[in-house]
Each structure stands twice: as structure tokens, then as C-alpha cells.
Amino acid sequence: MNRTKHALTILTICAATAALAHGGVKDPDVKARMDAMSAIGKATQTLGDMARGKIPLHQAKARMARDTLSLNAAKIPDLFENPATDPKSEALPAIWEDWSDFAGRAETMEQAALALDFTDRGTLSTTMRDLGATCGGCHKRYRIDK
Ligand code: HEC
């Protein structure tokens, strides 16, 4: 398996765990940040499917997914600012102990989303790999590994 394929597989796994996770979340701030992450997960999955050729590379849909990613990335600092908790939350306390690093990672994700290039499947795969690194990097430090 080459590196791009591997990265895309990881992305699909990250995106797929989304839908099930947040039924029954009571805290509204936790729900809002999980909803934003779910939207990020879905958009990532759409672009990953296009990069793999599972669905056609559709320019307008790709742009919409890119916008979902960049807009939600820009909201991450506001969404996580309040250290709200919920039994279903996967957020680690390190977020608020190392806030500037966390917020910086959101910014890096936003830049990677804006840099997505859907000229063709090749450019999309390459730029998706950079995006995927920003998801994994942040989750590794700040999200419970389930
Ligand atoms: C700045 C840090 C950060 C970045 C960047 C980030 N995430 Fe997250 N993500 C989190 C944290 C923290 C949680 C756990 C939130 C909670 O449960 O309260 C999370 C949760 C999720 C969830 C689960 C949502 C749910 O419903 O429980 C998905 C899916 C997800 N992220 C996908 C992604 C993808 C895909 C990317 C990259 C395109 C990404 N994330 C980038 C920090 C980040």
C-alpha cells in the first residue's frame, strides 16, 4: 500500500467513527463541537472518496466540502474555548492546558483545507494527505483514542 492510499484509509476510518459517537450528548457546547467535527469528518470522507475514485471528482461538490472544512476549522477555537465536558466527549484536558498549541493546530488545519487542490485525483490525493496529517496530529494529543 503506498503512502497516499494508507493516509486515505486512515482518513476514512477517522471520518467513519463520526456518525455514531454523539447520540445522547447533553452538554450543548460539547454537542456543538462534536457536530462541527462530524461535519469535518463527512467532508473529509467525500473528498477522500473523490481522491480514490470511489465517486466522481465533482468540482462544485469538492469546493463545498473544502469550504465546510475551512469554515469549521476556523470555528474550532471558539467551539472548544469553554472546557465543557460530557460523558460522551472524547476531548482530553490537555486542550485547555496547552491551548495555544491546540488553537495553532486548528489554524494549520484551516490552511491545509484552503490548500486543497482538486485539479485532478492526483493533486487531490496529495493535498488530502497534508490535510489528514493535521487531523491525526491533533487527535493524537487531544482526543481519547478509542
Ligand atoms: C485542533 C485539533 C483538531 C483538529 C485539527 C481536528 N480534530 Fe477532530 N476532534 C478533535 C477533538 C478534541 C475531538 C473530540 C471532541 C469531543 O468529543 O468533545 C475531535 C473529534 C472528531 C470526530 C468525532 C466527532 C464526534 O461526533 O464525536 C471526528 C469524526 C473528527 N474529529 C474528524 C476530524 C477530521 C477528519 C479532521 C481533519 C480534517 C479533524 N477531525 C481535525 C480535535 C481536532
UniProtKB/TrEMBL annotation:
Residues 1-21 form the signal peptide. Keywords: Electron transport, Heme, Iron, Metal-binding, Signal, Transport. GO terms for molecular function: electron transfer activity; heme binding; iron ion binding. Binds 1 heme group per subunit. Heme c binds at C135, C138, H139. GO terms for biological process: electron transport chain. InterPro entries: Cyt_c/b562, Cyt_c_II, Cyt_c_prime. GO terms for cellular component: periplasmic space. This is Cytochrome c556.
